[in-house]
Automatic annotation (TrEMBL):
<dbReference type="Pfam" id="PF09907">
    <property type="entry name" value="HigB_toxin"/>
</dbReference>
<dbReference type="GO" id="GO:0004519">
    <property type="term" value="F:endonuclease activity"/>
</dbReference>
<dbReference type="InterPro" id="IPR018669">
    <property type="entry name" value="Toxin_HigB"/>
</dbReference>
<protein>
    <submittedName>
        <fullName>Putative membrane protein</fullName>
    </submittedName>
</protein>
<dbReference type="GO" id="GO:0003723">
    <property type="term" value="F:RNA binding"/>
</dbReference>
<dbReference type="GO" id="GO:0110001">
    <property type="term" value="C:toxin-antitoxin complex"/>
</dbReference>
Length: 102
């Protein structure tokens, strides 16, 4: 998969207090780069805790649900567009199907 807006990961872990998230978010990024997903079931087979919401979005739980990454999916282009990166608490304050950025 191609991952669009990697800078959102960087911006998140560069915020004071979020430094500990870097290895986990970087691991998610590098893992997803190697994937060849064509269906939601492909993603569920890889990330059993992934959730699918409206507007073709998937919510990934990272580090045992400590962090959430919301991506828009484009299977045809083999692309994930990062829309949100945050903690579980930050995630609870947004609408996963509407969020556009960090």
């Amino acid at each position: 998969m191609r991952i669009i807006a990697k800078s959102r990961l960087h911006k998140y872990w560069e915020i004071r207090g979020n430094e500990k998230s870097e290895p986990y978010l970087a691991e998610w990024y590098h893992f997803c780069l190697k994937q060849d997903w064509h269906t939601a079931q492909d993603i569920k087979n890889t990330f059993g805790s992934a959730s699918f919401v409206a507007n073709n979005r998937v919510v990934f739980n990272v580090k045992g649900n400590d962090y959430r990454i919301i991506c828009a999916l484009d299977y045809t282009r083999q692309a994930l567009f990062i829309k949100f990166v945050g903690t579980h608490k930050e995630y609870n304050k947004i609408k996963a199907n509407e969020v556009e950025r960090l």
